[in-house]
């Protein structure tokens, strides 16, 4: 039977093509995550990860020559028709959606009509073969709210290149600088951080806010009169900004995962974060979780936190484990694709084989 | 009354009855709960350090009905009693009934059907019929909007109405529970630092920090006792507690409070004005209404009739015509 084309052989010769669709390419967590996926040598052996920035209107017109399409797109009612068209035009491809935005905490503060919102999410997610949650907490939410059937749900936490953070010197034993990283936006809760910080007496502490955004003026007015609070604008080099910080604060109102929390932990910086959504995934040594909106709890945690107590070996291990978990998650997803393709081929081929041998 | 055998497995619903010096009304309350058509429930009476016969009355009924348990504690206030009741509750659905209020016989069944059919709903509420101090039903009712309940509506109009209304999913209560550093025994769901406004604080916190839906069902399923406060000091305390609730929850979402607090404050002041009218305190009612509409005119626009009636009542309340109208408005339903 050597003249028969072996489908398994074909598949292994050609790399699986995985196209990542992104509608928001502003520098940030999502783009750095995609950089990691594209640059990773292990992943590259199994699949070619291709970045495809798209405009909203373009999504529905795409016919892509690839086995796997990964949507990092925002889901809303206006985008739904184009997602339907994407599914319709790419029937052979496996469609995966990575949910970077929506969580229980997001819903609580932004969605007056939850039933309607959940209908949107269910409708959109139903177009995909797999929906990837970026944290266990978000995955649990997607499952308990029946937004994604459990057998279509995967949990893959994002990773970025963490080597720069893992190699940072440990912070000062007597913490002096509290740092926060992120857009100056209601989501990040920096207003509560400023209120909490202002309750900490003394002049030996500094609060550094790294980031840009629409709330700058409002935050500056909250900080007015307290010279210890500094605004540093957007950071081009996050690991360098991290090196000057002794404690990281992440008082977000909602957060699908919070890659900055992982960076802080790998950098050996104690983390004070709110116990919302994906930030709960970061619970562990050196991490203090406080209730969202509880200014007194936040102030207390910032005051008593001293050291994460993490050794550099532990920090390296955390970085390696995080990167490995993300890599394994994507290998599993792309491999599954290969297997299912093989199974599809096998079903077609087996009868003809039988005929040939008969 | 049907006798129910003791059981080891958890019942479907727990009803928490916080009781402080409630000897005069507790038996009626408990009877209304024991006569629920939905019988798979446990009743947890939390005796909150009563100095009257409240615990004895509860114990006597517990001997007749094994579904009833009594938890005793030193006085911690309504929120503290409810928290202890929640900690003792074993069921997946947890309801509340204050020791001077009553539940209509079909109330629990209706809420369980509602929650069973709507997995996104974490808090199920209904309307209430009002009782006077002697337990006589009045021709007045709380008939809240039942659907489309967002955080803004809860803040402005508190459709849950009173503390003897809601039946919640345990998971919803757990999602807002926390353990303050001063607490050694059990979690808090209601904030025990509040002696008033503890209900609305809890429901608004649920709406702003979880994705549970809050939804109502038809019917006046609670009988809620109105007692006249009679003192303007009480009004001031009540309003101060409401303002403290706003201050406490604002960090959850300052934009939300910027946008809705003036209107919600106007509704709260209008509510206090109505209480003042009921107690015959016209001067105070008019003062509260002026403050209300200075805070925001929206109650006049959103609810013109109710606001107009309140204005008229506040104007007339200390005149003979007003007193006559008041008697008509508050006469018992049977009259």
From TrEMBL, chain A:
SUPFAM superfamilies for the chain: UDP-Glycosyltransferase/glycogen phosphorylase
CDD domains: GT4_PimA-like (cd03801)
A Pfam family matched in the record: Glyco_transf_4
InterPro entries xrefs: Glyco_trans_4-like_N (IPR028098)
Glycosyltransferase subfamily 4-like N-terminal domain span: 79-163
Gene3D superfamilies, sorted: Glycogen Phosphorylase B
Stated name of the protein: Glycosyltransferase family 4 protein
TrEMBL record, chain B:
CDD domains associated with the record: Glyco_tranf_GTA_type
Superkingdom, taxonomy of origin: Bacteria
SUPFAM superfamilies to which the protein is assigned, alphabetical: Nucleotide-diphospho-sugar transferases (SSF53448)
Organism: Salipiger mangrovisoli
Protein name: Glycosyltransferase family 2 protein
Gene3D superfamilies in the record: Spore Coat Polysaccharide Biosynthesis Protein SpsA, Chain A (3.90.550.10)
InterPro entries named in the record: Glyco_trans_2-like, Glycosyltransf_2, Nucleotide-diphossugar_trans
Ranges for domain Glycosyltransferase 2-like: 14-174
């Amino acid at each position: 039977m050597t003249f028969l084309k072996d489908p398994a052989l074909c598949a292994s010769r050609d790399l699986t093509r995985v196209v990542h669709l992104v509608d928001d390419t502003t520098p940030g967590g999502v783009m750095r995550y995609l950089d990691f996926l594209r640059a990773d040598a292990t992943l590259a052996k199994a699949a070619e990860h291709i970045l495809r920035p798209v405009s909203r209107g373009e999504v529905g017109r795409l016919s892509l020559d690839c086995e796997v399409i990964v949507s990092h797109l925002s889901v809303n009612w206006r985008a739904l028709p184009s997602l339907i068209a994407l599914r319709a035009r790419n029937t052979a491809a496996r469609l995966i959606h990575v949910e970077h935005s929506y969580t229980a905490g997001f819903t609580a503060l932004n969605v007056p009509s939850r039933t309607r919102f959940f209908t949107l999410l269910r409708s959109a997610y139903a177009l995909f073969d797999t929906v990837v949650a970026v944290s266990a907490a978000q995955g649990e939410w997607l499952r308990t709210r029946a937004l994604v059937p459990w057998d279509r749900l995967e949990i893959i936490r994002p990773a970025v290149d963490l080597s720069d953070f893992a190699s940072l010197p440990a912070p000062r034993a007597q913490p002096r600088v509290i740092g926060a990283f992120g857009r100056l936006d209601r989501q990040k809760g920096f207003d509560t951080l400023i209120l909490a910080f202002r309750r900490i007496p003394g002049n030996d502490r500094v609060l550094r806010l790294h980031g840009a955004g629409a709330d700058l003026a409002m935050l500056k007015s909250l900080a007015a009169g307290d010279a210890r609070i500094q605004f540093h604008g957007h950071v081009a080099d996050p690991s360098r900004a991290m090196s000057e910080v002794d404690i990281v604060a992440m008082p977000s109102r909602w957060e699908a995962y919070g890659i900055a929390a992982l960076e802080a932990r790998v950098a050996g910086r104690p983390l004070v974060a709110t116990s919302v959504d994906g930030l709960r995934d970061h619970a562990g040594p050196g991490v203090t979780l406080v209730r969202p909106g509880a200014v007194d709890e936040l102030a207390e945690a910032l005051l008593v936190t001293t050291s994460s107590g993490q050794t550099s070996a532990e920090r390296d291990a955390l970085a390696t484990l995080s990167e490995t978990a993300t890599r394994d998650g994507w290998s599993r997803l792309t491999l599954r694709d290969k297997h299912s393709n093989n199974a599809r081929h096998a079903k077609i081929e087996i009868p003809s084989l039988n005929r040939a041998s008969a | 009354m049907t006798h129910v055998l003791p059981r080891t497995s958890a019942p479907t619903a727990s009803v928490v009855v916080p009781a402080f010096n409630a000897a005069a009304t507790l038996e009626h309350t408990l009877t209304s709960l024991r006569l629920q058509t939905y019988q798979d429930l446990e009743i947890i009476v939390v005796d909150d350090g009563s100095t009257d016969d409240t615990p004895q009355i509860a114990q006597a009924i517990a001997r007749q009905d094994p579904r009833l348990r009594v938890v005793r504690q030193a006085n911690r206030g309504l929120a503290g009693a409810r928290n202890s009741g929640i900690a003792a509750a074993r069921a997946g659905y947890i309801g509340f009934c204050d020791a001077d209020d009553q539940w209509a016989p079909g109330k629990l069944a209706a809420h369980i059907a509602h929650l069973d059919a709507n997995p996104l709903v974490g808090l199920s509420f209904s309307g209430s019929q009002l009782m006077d101090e002697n337990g006589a039903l009045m021709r007045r009712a709380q008939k809240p909007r039942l659907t489309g309940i967002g955080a803004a509506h809860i803040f402005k109009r508190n459709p849950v109405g009173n503390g003897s209304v809601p039946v919640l999913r345990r998971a919803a209560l757990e999602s807002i529970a926390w353990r303050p550093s001063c607490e050694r025994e059990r979690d808090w769901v209601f904030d025990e630092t509040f002696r008033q406004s503890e209900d609305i604080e809890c429901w608004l916190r649920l709406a702003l920090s979880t994705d549970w839906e809050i939804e109502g069902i038809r019917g006046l399923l609670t009988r809620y006792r109105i007692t006249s406060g009679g003192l303007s000091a009480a009004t001031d305390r009540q309003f101060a507690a409401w303002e403290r609730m706003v201050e406490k929850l604002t960090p959850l979402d300052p934009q939300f409070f910027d946008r809705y607090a003036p209107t919600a404050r106007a509704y709260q002041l209008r509510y206090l004005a109505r209480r003042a009218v009921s107690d015959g305190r016209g001067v105070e009612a008019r003062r509260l209404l002026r403050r209300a509409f200075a805070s925001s005119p929206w109650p006049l626009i959103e609810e013109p009739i109710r606001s107009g009636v309140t204005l008229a009542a506040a104007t007339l309340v200390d005149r003979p015509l007003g007193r006559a109208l008041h008697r008509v408005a508050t006469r018992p339903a049977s009259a």
